[in-house]
Amino acid sequence: MEHYFTKNSNLKSNEKKISVTLKNKGYNFLTDNGVFSKDGLDKGTRVLLEVLDFNSVTGKVLDVGCGYGPIGIILSKNTKCEIDMIDINNRAIELAKKNIKLNNAKNIRAFESDRYENVKEEYDFIITNPPIRVGKEILYKILIEAKSHLKKNGELWFVVNKHQGAKSLSLDMASVYNVEVVSKSKNFLVIRAKNN
User: Fold this and answer.
1) How many domains does one find in the chain?
2) Among 130, 180, 187, which Cα is nearest to 155's?
3) What is the DSSP string of 164-177?
4) I need a labelling partner for 79 at 20 to 30 A (CA). Which of 1, 12, 18, 71 fits?
5) Residues of the chain with pLDDT under 50
6) Distance CA 162, CA 156 (A)
7) Do residues 127 and 157 lie in contact, with contact meaning Cβ atoms separated by under 8 Å?
8) In this predicted model, what pLDDT tens digit does every residue of 56-102 receive, in sequence order?
9) In angstroms, rounded to a whole number, what is the distance separating the alpha carbons of residues 71 and 127?
């Protein structure tokens, strides 16, 4: 079984289009086997995007573990930000590129990167629904290493299921960031971690 957080190029392709409505706006996305939440917008991603005030997201944004691109693309359609999307999964990146065109999204690009290896810039916001199933060690690296790619006072926003260690994760991140639990909704915590 190849996972969505690996470079899974061997999995048989079965591309399909899904429709997503968020904050009364509609979007279409192409998804496929081997990418996260291929049948619709994941609950955690939805909670994160619903909680996020699009008017307050400005400057440069990095979407980490972008999958087929819903976070970055929805942000690009609702903000004037310059957005980068990264994922280790090359199929996800190819879908994200197609979805940028499908949604006529502007000021956005997608590229392959294992965590931050191909990331050369600093961002005002890093936004992610992190891949919990990669295990604690890699998950913590994704969240802690974000700090070196955030501008001063930049913000890391992420969502975690309450039943997947959200409480201990937010406490552990408090040693690295100024952490605030912004929302507790539908079994998910949305956490803002500020780079002071």
Assistant:
1) 1
2) 180
3) GTHHHHHHHHTTTS
4) 18
5) 1-2
6) 18
7) yes
8) 999 999 999 999 999 999 999 999 999 999 999 999 999 999 999 99
9) 8
Q: So what's the pLDDT on residue 104?
A: 98
b/e per residue, 37-55, with b = 16+ CB within 10 A? bbeebbbbbbbbbeebeee
Domain span holding position 56: 16-194
- Looking at residue 40, the DSSP 8-state letter turns out to be S
Confidence (pLDDT) at 164: 84
Write the CATH number for 140: 3.40.50.150
Joined together, the tokens standing for residue 15 give: 């591309």
Question: For position 185, what pLDDT does the model report?
Answer: 87
DSSP state of 35: S
pLDDT of residue 5: 54
Flag whether 107 is in a domain.
Answer: yes
Asked whether residue 91 is domain-assigned, the answer is yes
Q: Is residue 181 part of a domain?
A: yes
CB atoms within 10 A of CB 156: 27
